[in-house]
Design a protein that fits this description.
Layout: H1 3-18, H2 31-35, H3 39-53, H4 59-64, H5 68-81
Helix pairs in contact: 1-3, 1-5
Protein name: Acyl carrier protein
Pfam families: PP-binding
Keywords: Phosphopantetheine, Phosphoprotein
């Protein structure tokens, strides 16, 4: 899965959890500042990504993300680090 596909999936999962249209979410979207996302919502986003991608998400990564694009980079790095 490439970065663009991960980005699309991330936006889909974020929109599902927040109950907003995917068009409202972009890589520059700051979930904390723009949507007041709390840690439980971040954990739900992480759980949905884990199920969809088969990669373990660290809660610290989710809590530290600056925006959706940063989260995409973190997930991409986790997938790249998996043994083949």
């Amino acid at each position: 899965m490439n970065r663009a596909e991960i980005s699309e999936l991330m936006i889909e999962k974020v929109a599902e959890v927040l109950g907003v249209d995917q068009a409202e979410i972009g890589e520059q979207t700051d979930l904390g500042a723009e949507y007041a996302v709390d840690s439980l919502e971040l954990m739900e986003i992480g759980a949905r990504l884990e199920r969809a991608l088969g990669v373990r998400m660290q809660i610290e990564d989710l809590l530290d993300m600056r925006n959706v694009g940063h989260a995409v980079d973190l997930v991409t790095a986790r997938i790249s680090a998996r043994p083949a």
